[in-house]
Each structure stands twice: as structure tokens, then as C-alpha cells.
Amino acid sequence: MSFLRTALKNRSFTIGFAITALVVAMAAISFVWTPYGVDDQRVMEVGLQKPSLTYWLGTDNLGRDLLSRIMVGARNSIAVALVAVIIGVGLGVPLGCWAASRGGLVDEALMRGNDVVFAFPALLSAVMITATFGPGAINAIIAIGIFNIPVFARLSRGAALALWKREFIMAARAAGKSAPRITVEHIIPNMSNLLIVQATIAFALGIIQEAGLAYVGLGTQPPFPSWGKMLNEAQTMMAFAPHLAIVPGLAIVITVLGLNLLGDGLRDVLDPKLANRRPAEGDA
Amino acid sequence: MSLLDIENLSLSIGDTPILHDVSLTVGAGEIVGIVGESGSGKSMTALAAMQLLPEGSSTTGSISFQNQQVQGADDALMQDLRGDDMAMIFQEPMTALNPVQTIGDQVAEGMILHEGLSKADAEARAKTLLERVGLPSNRYPLSRYPHELSGGQRQRVMIAMACAQSPDLLIADEPTTALDVTLQAQILRLLRDLVAEQGMGLILISHDLAVVAEMTDQLVVMRHGRVVEAGPTGKTLKALAHPYTAQLAAASSHIPKRTKPPVLTSEQTVNPLVQVKNVSRHYSQRRQSFFHKSPPVKAVNDVSFDLFPAQSMGLVGESGCGKSTLARLVLALDAPTAGDIHLDGESLLTTPPAQMPALRRKMQIVFQDPFASFNPRHTMERAVAEPLYLEPNLSKADRRDRVVAALKEVGLTASALTKYPHEFSGGQRQRLAIARALITRPQLIVADEPVSALDVSIRAQVMDLFTHLRERLGLTYLFISHDLGVVRAMCDEVLVMDGGKIVERGPVDDIFDNPQSEAAQRLVEATPDLERALALRNDAA
């Protein structure tokens, strides 16, 4: 709890945390309640409407309530980005730590493999993967997740290499502990701050990438709503119904902004050099 | 007329008072030493003179430099003075230089800035300056980067930078603490010569009384932000009028009480605890080119020695002589490229992994830096219990009992169990590091510079603890240090290493009183010694 108290003094953390919490809450509420049915098409009765008191964010040309669709779409964005981050952390961190603890050929091979993955523009390759294996939420997750692996591998390798030189690691080695055990007990806890911040940023990127894939029709398939898909559908009606594009566009921008602020804030809060939480050491 | 005049300076940062009524004066051509332990405020006094205090500091009193009031002076005046008229050298030469600028650029920078010299002129001057501090440009061209130099060479670059504008006042804050004794002697000689040549004032901040006794004219002893005693160095250190000065002097030449070195029984001399046989550790370097393999670095080169039970063996040498590598080999943290090491009759190289825990239990390590040797995220109970990983069959209660027993052994109580490393002082942490080493009830403890990061009074306590434990538990020590005083106080025998080889071996007193090898002579000569320094002084009343 004391962590949250210090963290809330940081403005970007507070704003980012509030926005992220709002988006997550929206997605969670959508499981039990939405203002209107997500797929209720009422072309005749309702039709295309601008935002109003009855339809807060307006409706689309098929008479579907935009707020409901945004809420349900948030679920999709969060799920895809979250699982992609979990793939990145789950595979990238062990690979990076392995490379750091073994060094030599293993390190060299893994890092050059990393470079190969890095050499492809992530979104283009994701398009390639989903185009090859068929569009859908699962393939989008895999495509985005693969490109998170080298990011986390490189980050954790660098951090682990620095940690391996520390004396408390040497003490653990003198206690006969194996490299994997030292990695779990000493290395990963000491780089968790870095990983948390990077995960937040990767999460934000994942949301953009998911929207991009859905926009070109390679993400979640209709009728399930998705922010990217909604943007795509709005394209032809931009001239007379701009709110159709503005609403999902704003949803993406605000969510990503919130996550980036959260990541920024977390970095400041978690970095012990900035936080001044430790007593001064050495000569005053 | 004095150069720097500090009168009744008090300083607080936030609500914490740091300095109380500090007064000192430095004349031209005079060397003033400030000694004191961590937290005594000696660095802060220096920073106050430079007006480089951290944010949130408030000061009262007066600081005048060349009859100019600098206390509370604006930044424009101070920037003019700093570098030009007053300069400072820091402790850590590794971090005080900009890693992406060549040494030539860094030395020349101040001249271009303060004197408006052209780049070519400044470089020419930089060249002579670097030559003056012992870095001739034919061997150390201006285009070198800091990482291409050793610690001592970097400190020379720092001194060249500081002296570039022939400052009137130079402040050296622990300039040699990060260096080994031979480099320390060279740097101190250089500073003394520069003071004599340029007639500048020098404030030398140090925790080492012997260094101060050798170097300074005036001495200021500080404690808890107050000046406890000040006066001519020789007189002050001979009279030891103030109890704190006497206490510092006693601690810095402290020798733990110990019984005679154990006489080895014939059985013991037949069965050494550690047997190092023709051990080498070579590191391959990056290839020079595709076709040219670089010669390997011979960190340890054909070393053999025996260590008998209950013996305390010192291992001394300059930095880079291979002593830490040898320690890692003995602890089986690294494998030799040739030779073999036996512990208690069993080879570290051929023992199957399943039997290694039993062997590792017999040897533990204590490191130099008590701040770096604990995982900051583990409680002390977990940290101290770490080596018990080698004894997997202990119950949780047994583990805790062992931790408490080990803490008691080093003079700490069970209240330490739930605390984190940063809640302890340096001396307490070093005790905890010793507790961690003791917990497997080892026979051999390898101590890598275990007291060199500690204040003198704490150092004396930790040395006593080592000696006490050895006598009580029959421990065998391999004691690595560049401080001959510590080795002399702690060890029976000593190995002198140079360039990866053992060049001399014998009883401590023999070697230090009558060194045969060149490396040992260098070390003995360079080691600052309080008594010797005082004997050479003629200013004592």
C-alpha cells in the first residue's frame, strides 16, 4: 500500500493509472451490461445518429450503439495486447536470461536470431503472418506476441549481464547454486522494475498493432466488435458521419496515452535513483 | 593573507544538520589535510568551498577565497572561479571522466573555456600537462579514451585537468582511495610536487591518517560535522591531545590480539587443506584480425602453494596481478586452464557434481564491498541462509537456528533477521557477510579485501572479529589485500603476486621487513605508515 501512496504523488502515474483503470473497468462492465445490445441492428427504427442523450456516442449506419461497441471492443483490444505481452515476457525473458548466463555461442546465436526478428517491420510481418495463417484474434495475438519476444530478450539480457557481475551473485555461486536458480532468485527480481515498465509500453504498442491488423481486416472477425474494425467501417462515411471514426479513434488514442503515461510514471516511481527512498550511503 | 578562509560554517540539507561551526584556513603553497570517518562532513566542507552543495542546502557563516566572499555568491562568479582559480579531484576516476571524449579534449576544454586559447594551443598545452603528470604523448596520445587507461592513469588525467589553469586552490577528495598502494604513492608524490612547483594550496581529504601524516602541513580532524581538532600535522599526531584523534590513530594501526601462530603438527603439514598445483588461468582475447589470434592473457600463470589447516595466508599484489582470479579458482567459481586444486584431499576439477555441495560447504567467501554483496531485495534471514542451499535436508526451524547462531557469532542479534541490507551500516553489513560465510561451518574462508572499504575504527573491529573467529573455530584464511598493514596484522604467512605469478612467499614479518622480490619491495615502500611518516617529520614540537 505504501507503494501506491508514493506512486500517486507522481502525476503521470496517477493520470495513466486512472485512464487505464477506466478502460479496464469499461471492458469488465461490458460482460454484464452494455447500454444497448452490441449487435442489435435497428436500421429502420434508429439508423445513423449523431451523439445524443439517448445514444451517448451516437450509432452507426446499422443502428448499433457505438458506446456498447466501444465497451465490448475494449475487451478484444485488452485481451489481444495482454496475451501478446505475456508471450513476449514468457519467452523473451527466459531467452535473454539464458543468453546472459551462458554467454559464448548460445548468447551469440540467440542475439543474432533476435536481430533477424528485429530486422522485419513488426506490423508488416504481423500482416504477413495473419495473411498466411488466416485472419482471426488468435493469429493476431501470435503475430504481435512474436515481435515482443526479442524486445524482452534483449532488455533482460542486458540487465542480467550487469547483475551477473555483482558480488551478491558471486556469493550465490559460492553457495553452489545453479545458473537457472540464481536467475530465478536473484536476477529476475532485480530487473522486475525494468520489465514492468517495458511490459506497459509493449501493451500500448500491442493495442495499436491489434487495431492496425483489425483495420486491414486481419484481426478479430465480425460480428465481434473491434476498434480497428470500427475505424475501417467508418471510412466510407467519414464525410457525413465523422463521429463514426472519431469515437474509436479517440478510444485508441486515449488508451495508448494512458498506458504510456502509466509506463512513464512507473519508471520514475520504481527507479530507486529517482525515488530517493534509500538513506544516503557513504560520506555525507 | 590566507587563500581560503572558512569561518563558522554551518550547513543543513533539508532539516538535517550536516556541519556545525566549521572553521579552517588554507594558505598559498600549504597542504591541509581533512580526516574523519564516513559522515563526518569532510566532503561537504569541500563542496561548500566550491559552492557545489546539493539542492536544498542552507548555510550560515562565511567562506572567503582570495578575500572574496564566495558564500552565497552568484553562479556567474563561481563559474569564473571554478576550474580557473579553484579545482577539485574526486575519488572515483572511473566515473569522473566523460567516457565519450578523448583525454586530450577533456584536458584542453578548460583552457579553451577559461583562457580563450585556440584549439591547437590548448592541445599543445594539454600535451605538456599530461607529460607532467606522467602520461607522455608518445605512449599515451591525446586521442586515447578514458576506458583505454587504467585507474591510476585516469586519476592522472583528472589531476592534469584540475591543474590545467594553474588553480590557486586544489581540493582532492580521497584521490587515491580507489587505487592500490603503489599507484597511491605515485599520485601523492605528483600532488606534492605540483604544490611545490605552482605554489597552490591543497586540501587533501582522506580517511587514512598515514597518508595525511606523510603529505600535509596542517591537519583538521572532523567528526559528526564538527572540527574536533586542528593544528600542525606533526604536532597534532604526536601529541594526540584530543581523545578522538588518539582513537583514530590507534584504530589505524590496530593489530588484533592473537596467540602465536599455531605450530603445525606433522600430520597437518602432510595434509594441506588447500593444495594448488601448477595452476594457470589464461583468457583468450578477441582476435586481432581473421588470421591473427591474439596471445592469451595470463591472469594466473603456473602458481603452486599449499595452505594448511588453521593457517592464515595473506595474498598481496598490485591491482591486476591476478590475486582475485586466483581466489575465484580456489573457490571453484572458475576453472583453471591448467593444473589442479585440491581441497581437503579432493580435486575441485574431477569431483563429480553430485559431491560438489559437500566440498563447497567447506569453503566460503567474504567480499570487499559490503554494499554490493547482498541482494537488496532479500531479507537478511534469506541472504545469510543462502549457503545453506548446500545442506538441503535442514528443516525451516533448523535453518533459522543456524542463521541466528551465525549472527550471534559475529555479534548481531536475531532482530536483524527481518531487515533489508540498506538498513545496516557498512560495518554491520560486513559482519553479516561474515555470518553468511560462517553458516555452513566452513574450514576455509577466502576474504577478498574484506576491510578496505571500511572506516578505520570499524576496520579494527572487523579485523578483531576475523581473528577471534579464527581462534575459536579453527578457520583457515586466504586473505587478499593490497593493504600490507592489514595483512601483517592478520596473517602468519604471505604470498606476493606479480604478473600472474607468485614471486615471494614467507612469514609476514620476514617479507615486510626484508622484501626480496621487486614486487614486494615496491609494495612495502609505497605503503603509507603512520609511525614512519611521523618520524620523518620535523615540525613536531
Folded structure, characterized:
The complex is a heterodimer of chains A (284) and B (541). Chain A has 284 residues and is mainly alpha-helical. Chain A has 11 helices and no strands. In chain A, helix 6 (137-164) packs antiparallel against helix 8. The longest helix of chain A is centred in the N-terminal third of the chain and has 37 residues, at 66-102. Mean pLDDT of chain A is 85; it is low at 274-284. Chain B is α/β, with parallel strands linked by helices and 541 residues long. Helix content of chain B is 37%, strand content 23%. Chain B contains 21 helices and 20 strands. In chain B, a hairpin with a 2-residue loop joins strand 19 and strand 20 (501-507). In chain B, helix 4 (103-115) packs parallel to helix 6 (151-163) and helix 8 packs parallel to helix 21 (530-536). The interface between A and B is medium-sized, with 21 and 36 residues.
**How far apart lie the N and C ends of chain A?**
31 Å
Give the helices and strands of chain A as they follow along the chain.
HHHHHHHHHHH
Largest interface (CB < 8 Å): A-B, 21 and 36 residues
Number of helices of chain A: 11
Helix content of chain A: over 70%
The portion of residues forming beta strands of chain A comes to: under 5%
Given the C-alpha coordinates, what overall shape of chain A results? elongated
Q: How many strands, what sense, and barrel or not for the largest sheet of chain B?
A: 6 strands, mixed
Mean pLDDT of chain B: 86
Helicity of chain B, as a percent range: 25-40%
The number of helical segments of chain B is 21
The protein's oligomeric status is: heterodimer
Total DSSP E strands of chain B: 20
Tell me the major beta sheet of chain A.
none
Strand line-up of the largest beta sheet of chain B: 6-7-8-3-9-10
